């Protein structure tokens, strides 16, 4: 898309951000959706291809996903994360480069991409909250509220299921809380689930499960880096303490790898702290101009899905672009799809889940909803958009 020319009547009026200046995720060659298919293909699982060409095959693969630990957060904290820092050069098969999360850079979307090996436009979890076209209600895809039949919402098999069917020993090691959640069932199921409370127990059991088969595919997860970032920010002592802890967990797991094994450390998104001022936190619930013609506000602060009243779609797009276009990439649904924000295709069942208008933050700013989203609006650390700090995630590698 060509950037619009400045108005002849108002030559000093800034033009909105051109959509082609957004860094679209590397779907197909270097995104989270490409990781498990690449590993499983190297283990001989049929129907999958090696999409990240830099990764060499291994008989036993373990993915450790650290929620909220973006590439730039590791780069910025070498003292708190000495072991992770020592692995930076191994990222993405020794290229020393990150991969991309996918859009939006948020947990439900990213876990859907990781587990299914599909981009958001296909697996159908394209945001934190999105409209269910069947009911007209907002669906929270992380908390799965209101209840929606999981296999109707996401019908594709997971990579874990395909690997298990192909005879690969497959396991997930995570908090017991997640064992029966719909998100786990539609994104991360297949093989066996092992619930363990402490990080140390998870690392030890992940290593055991990795050694339990001649070919193994193991997934493990830790959430509190993200939790402390949301509550206190990535510039807080609480967040740094979690980074130090998870650095030790990675080393603990790496030192227990069985023969012929590869450990990959990655994340679902990065994070950015947003100041608590009116310029940085635009309150949708207090802004009549942004609310005009809007039926539902979905997504999250840095990656909004905006659902217009029928017939008001073009007006809402024009207003949002005029008001926010210098700070956000503002796109109509079809523009965002054509630009590849959700991958190279969008399934018909997913099309109506995507906002009529999308707003992805470019600057250090969020669109909060203080009345309808009080908890999310009070968070310090935020994520969701396509900026490097949110979008780039590590793919650190240790081999035995």
List the helices and strands and how they pair.
Blueprint: H1 35-42, E1 60-66, H2 71-75, H3 82-86, H4 91-94, E2 99-100, H5 107-116, H6 120-123, E3 129-131, E4 138-140, H7 150-153, H8 159-165, E5 169-174, H9 182-187, E6 192-195, H10 199-211, E7 216-222, H11 224-232, H12 237-254, E8 261-266, E9 272-273, E10 281-283, H13 288-291, E11 294-300, E12 303-308, H14 313-324, E13 328-332, H15 333-338, H16 348-351, E14 357-361, E15 366-368, H17 374-377, E16 381-382, H18 388-391, E17 392-393, E18 396-399
Parallel strand pairs: 1-7, 1-8, 5-6, 5-7, 10-15
Antiparallel strand pairs: 2-17, 3-4, 8-18, 9-16, 11-12, 12-14, 13-14
Helix pairs in contact: 10-12, 11-12
Description of the molecule:
By secondary structure, the protein is of the alpha/beta class. It has helices at 35-42, 71-75, 82-86, 91-94, 107-116, 120-123, 150-153, 159-165, 182-187, 199-211, 224-232, 237-254, 288-291, 313-324, 333-338, 348-351, 374-377, 388-391, and strands spanning 60-66, 99-100, 129-131, 138-140, 169-174, 192-195, 216-222, 261-266, 272-273, 281-283, 294-300, 303-308, 328-332, 357-361, 366-368, 381-382, 392-393, 396-399. The chain has a six-stranded mixed β-sheet with strand order 6-5-7-1-8-18, with helices on both faces. A four-stranded antiparallel β-sheet has the order 11-12-14-13. A hairpin with a 6-residue loop joins β3 (129-131) and β4 (138-140). α10 runs parallel beside α12 and α11 packs antiparallel against α12. The longest helix has 18 residues, at 237-254. It is globular, with a radius of gyration of 21 Å. The model is unreliable at 1-10 (pLDDT under 50).
